[in-house]
Design a protein that fits this description.
Layout lengths: L3 E6 L4 H12 L3 E7 L11 H5 L8 E2 L2 H6 L3 E4 L3 H14 L2 E4 L6 H10 L4 E4 L5 H16 L6 E8 L9 H14 L3 H4 E2 L14 E7 L5 E9 L2 E9 L3 H14 L5 E3 L1 H4 L4
Parallel strand pairs: 1-2, 1-4, 2-3, 4-5, 5-6, 6-12, 7-9, 8-9
Antiparallel strand pairs: 7-10, 10-11
Helix pairs in contact: 1-9, 4-5, 6-7
The structure holds nicotinamide-adenine-dinucleotide.
């Protein structure tokens, strides 16, 4: 089979550049297009040169349609509204769409789900092997430990430029905990605490958000019981772990029917 041709949207972003490097180091894939938003100062630049892999002849453009038309898949770590739009284009082109964008609201989520009738979409708030394994462990722990005795709190820290909170990964871990307890995260989540909050509601899944510096992503799930605490954690040291996961997801999805898949499907942890 020929190399899988991949387009990176958001090519000049932190993750976009990590994706271009991951494609360059992975056999079986090639970069066929690089797209940025209209008006970006990076338009026209060589994508490989920008990402530090050496010039590769792929110029960054602002029109996704011709790029999608000649590709087998799209790697997308951009913004929620852009990812919803790109899902529609990927469906029209009948290609794979790997979505790493976080902070996606219900409306854009619905558009992505609708596009998955024709596109093979893998969407995850965290594409790393370690975090997806952690989610499986959190689900198991939440199932084993009774909610009336053990409280679950999720703590995360990210770099100062991050725009959404709690992180997509914190929410992914929260959903895993809720799944283990047989409840819906929306019903159990306490996303913010401030002022006279009253005591902790039984069964709540709490979140705490820290922002600062250049932190790539730290997550801790604390399960606090009477006289003991279990702490499950993950530390991301390099964005390359998400980028490699995204490339792996694209290769996995190439052979799959249209639908909405998660990274746990890709890694066989579902
Ligand atoms: P960033 O701001 O550095 O990069 C985003 C890029 O997308 C920018 O260059 C921006 O110009 C571009 N962009 C925005 N709209 C566009 C459009 N319509 N067309 C083309 N390009 C467009 O941000 P980042 O740190 O790279 O993170 C991007 C997203 O990925 C965030 O939502 C972040 O939370 C998420 N993320 C997910 C994972 C994961 O594993 N799922 C890991 C890290 C980051």
């Amino acid at each position: 089979m020929s190399d899988m041709a991949l387009v990176v949207v958001g090519a000049a972003g932190r993750m976009g550049q990590a994706l271009i490097r991951a494609i360059a180091e992975t056999p079986g894939v090639k970069l066929s297009g690089a797209v940025e938003r209209a008006g970006s100062s990076m338009l026209g630049r060589d994508a490989g040169e920008l990402a530090g892999t050496g010039a590769n002849g792929v110029a960054i453009g602002d029109d996704p349609l011709p790029a999608f038309a000649k590709a087998d898949g799209v790697l997308d770590f951009t913004t929620p509204a852009s990812s919803a739009l790109f899902a529609g284009y990927a469906a029209q082109a009948r290609i794979v769409h790997v979505v790493g964008t976080t902070g996606v609201g219900p409306e854009d989520e619905a558009k992505i789900a609708a596009a998955a009738r024709h596109a093979t979409i893998v969407k995850s708030g965290n594409m790393s092997l370690g975090v997806n394994l952690l989610a499986a462990l959190v689900e198991q722990a939440a199932r084993a430990l009774p909610a009336d005795a053990f409280d679950i709190e999720i703590l995360e820290m990210h770099h100062r430029h991050k725009v959404d909170a709690p992180s997509g990964t914190a929410l992914l871990l929260g959903r895993a905990a809720a799944e283990g307890r047989g409840v819906k995260l929306d019903d159990a989540a306490v996303r913010v605490r401030d002022g006279h909050t009253g005591p902790r509601p039984e069964g709540a899944i709490g979140f705490a958000t820290l922002r600062g510096g250049s932190v790539v992503g730290d997550h801790q799930v604390v399960i606090a019981g009477p006289g003991e605490r279990i702490v499950l954690s993950h530390i991301a040291e390099d964005r390359a772990i998400f980028a490699r996961g995204a490339v792996r997801a694209a290769l996995w999805a190439r052979e799959k029917k249209p639908g909405l898949y998660s990274m746990r499907d890709v890694l066989g942890l579902a």
